[in-house]
Amino acid sequence: GAVVSQHPSRVICKSGTSVKIECRSLDFQATTMFWYRQFPKQSLMLMATSNEGSKATYEQGVEKDKFLINHASLTLSTLTVTSAHPEDSSFYICSARDIDRATEAFFGQGTRLTVV
Amino acid sequence: KQEVTQIPAALSVPEGENLVLNCSFTDSAIYNLQWFRQDPGKGLTSLLLIQSSQREQTSGRLNASLDKSSGRSTLYIAASQPGDSATYLCAVTGGGNKLTFGTGTQLKVEL
To answer: Which member of B44, B93, B100 has the closest CB to residue A107?
Structure first.
């Protein structure tokens, strides 16, 4: 199957700082990547859809100025949590769809963000 | 708005038992349905993908079925093993290629 690499896997940061999370498709090109957030013992909630070369589409209730998404190439999307607060602590997971296999979604390993 | 529900929320079985996980969705206008496995603190591993035109898919000890018209899918795990212990998530792909996830079933297979 296709491989999606997400980095870092864990990060601890101080309140008020910004954190960047990278999502890379290693062996395929992805025109669309998705960013999810998962709270403990809950399912994944879609935050935004990232399209290569254009602005991301955010789900209702997600602050686009707080969660900056950049999809500069067909293999890389980044999520930057700006001015992080403790309530932003969560598990963030990215997903990518292969251009050639547009129906199946592949997921990164996730990033555990803790804001102290 | 699509809603996906999984039953049961948690399940504990002895090793070797066959088991069925259930997934239901409210909007039958889907492109496909995927079953995932998630280990604690980890990302998702895709197990099976069923296209909307298909009825079932099999991979090893796993068999997934799809009844699109009634909005239901099942994941059958044969001869369960302790290594199968994880959270199982189903997700449907709808408009905009967006995945809507179910609530998950936490499975524990005991020795």
So the answer is: B44
Residues B80 and B16: beta-carbon distance below 8 Å: yes
Q: Which chain B residues have a beta carbon less than 8 Å from that of A33?
A: none
Q: Which residues contact A58 (CB under 8 A, 6 or more apart)?
A: A47, A48, A64, A67
φ, ψ dihedrals at A86, nearest 5°: -55, -35
Cβ(A19)–Cβ(A84) under 8 Å? yes
A72-107 pLDDT, tens digit each = 888 999 999 999 999 999 999 999 987 766 677 889
* 8 A C-beta contact, residue B8 and residue B54: no
- Cβ contact B96–A49 (<8 Å): yes
Scored b (16 or more CB within 10 A) or e, B4-37 reads bebeeeebebeeeeebebebbbeeeebebbbbbb
The closest alpha carbon to A90, from A36, A14, A49, A51, belongs to: A36
- Given a cut of 70, whether residue A1 has pLDDT beyond it is no
Size of interface A-B (CB pairs under 8 A): 57
User: What is the per-residue pLDDT across B31-47, written as a single tens digit (0 to 9) for each?
Assistant: 999 999 999 888 899 99
- Hey, what are A73's tokens? 């190439």
